[in-house]
């Protein structure tokens, strides 16, 4: 059996890589929410100085990358590879952000699970001895997402109570073979679960079964218990999806003991900011991780967290053709210090 | 420095993984072309029995995966992970093909470079000791692509001479820690190059600089020469892009010595099948690799090939907003036998 493999879909690193630096870029609404003060760069202009929202999202990734390298004291030449992806058709924010930078680039599509997926693959690349420093990065933009997935903003469509609000933000992390910073000890790759939810305004419910399946597999494969983590953080299940996840765990006899949090309910004030079921989008878990959570690990507020990015793998075309919504969740275990 | 790293963006495997099995699914036009007889499954129905072209593409991936496992004598439970992606918005062919299969899934977006990108990442996962058997898979569908990227087929739009024809097909490969089959010895991750080509009907020209850059880096990093390969195969530069690539090499003083071939010009009869500059799409290099090339390695027709997937990272939105077309190319070195 492969040597760093644990169970079928999980692995633990012989030499766990470090998250040597991280950076977050956030929009206006995000910088007015409960996590204000945790972001490296904020802008009240939804265009970030660009002529379109799509180009604004690309600009956010560029800003996240620039800030990351500055914080790490590195130049682009010090980076061996970048894993990135986003929600826009053909992942244009990610590709255009990296063009002509000379940065070796591997594109991902994991919908809103991209921060976890990119972190997992960056860890695997460094932990497998293939690279010294790899960037994991993603973004989303409320206005660009709305017009691509739902309605043009000017149409003024009504939002349902289960709808979530796409975060305008970008997060980037530098996974490194050496240096200081939180440690990635293990990870679990998600399976694609679809229990038949077809309401594109209730993506939390569509993603909850995938989150349950991945967290359960991680605990089983790594012989871990919920008590081993200070936090088990899902990406963007929001209020509705989080309730379903907790219900599934209760029914399965595993007690999360109040350790569960969700980036979608952390990033906004659900009552005060009129976001209905919470935040969503690749940027949601990205800015909560690269803003708030990694900071909490450094300050020893948290000793170990399980970061579980969740993604709804639908497209407007699949929904128009009557399909339900598959979900996926990838999990990465991050500790404040090297263990064992 | 990381131990399997060679140069900044290339790596060579300490224990090179095998391609233990492969499978290809092709449409009508492809099965009438020069590579007829090399595909495992062909169908003259462009719908593959499904109600839409998008669902047909998804069905092709399912067929490729089923055929792959059958040829390998494996079940889905024997597979640790799948890397896959496609051209449809939000990569729905890949996600829907894997839903509720229990297969751990990592989604990619590399446009038409996806076969090489998925093979590279599968090799890295197996070669790094994280998995025993990993599937690399992708697909494209002419009719689904046309209506998403260009015009509805019924519109009867005129094609320009530099335009390429999206291949209807799917390819899948099983990268394994053990067993028989061709060996993946090394790989190079691509950078995103954009020299300003903005004509979405001339994607070969847009991708050629990325192919040049990656092949050059592979040769430099691995201290290899063109003579070390029987073939240097690009993904889908087509006739126009291939000429530009050869021109770039000639100008740089490196003689490819007639070793270059392009999957886009191999898969169709350019004159007889009215495809203008050649084939394209994720399925193009996928079915040429998983149909013709791997067969050639097994039969010792080729001793070693450099498989270079090429991708044009545009979207209709980026083109409408006046952007040029970034290209990317990932390279994987495949040998008939274990070396050294």
Keywords:
340 residues, 15 strands, seven-stranded mixed sheet, homodimer, alpha/beta, six-stranded mixed sheet, 10 helices
Query: What level of helicity do the residues of chain A show?
Result: 25-40%
Q: Greatest interface and its residue counts? A: A-B, 71 and 71 residues
Strand order of the largest sheet of chain A: 1-2-10-15-14-11-12
Shape descriptor of chain A reads globular
Low-confidence stretches of chain A at least 5 residues in length (pLDDT < 50)?
A: none
H/E element order of chain A = EEEHEHEHEHEHEEEHEHEHEHEHE
Straight-line distance between termini of chain A: 23 Å
The tally of strands of chain A reads 15
Radius of gyration of chain A: 18 Å
Number of helices of chain A: 10
The major beta sheet of chain A can be summarized as: 7 strands, mixed
Which range does the strand content of chain A fall in?
15-25%
| Mean of residue pLDDT values of chain A | 97
Quaternary state of this entry equals homodimer
Helical/strand content category of chain A:
alpha/beta
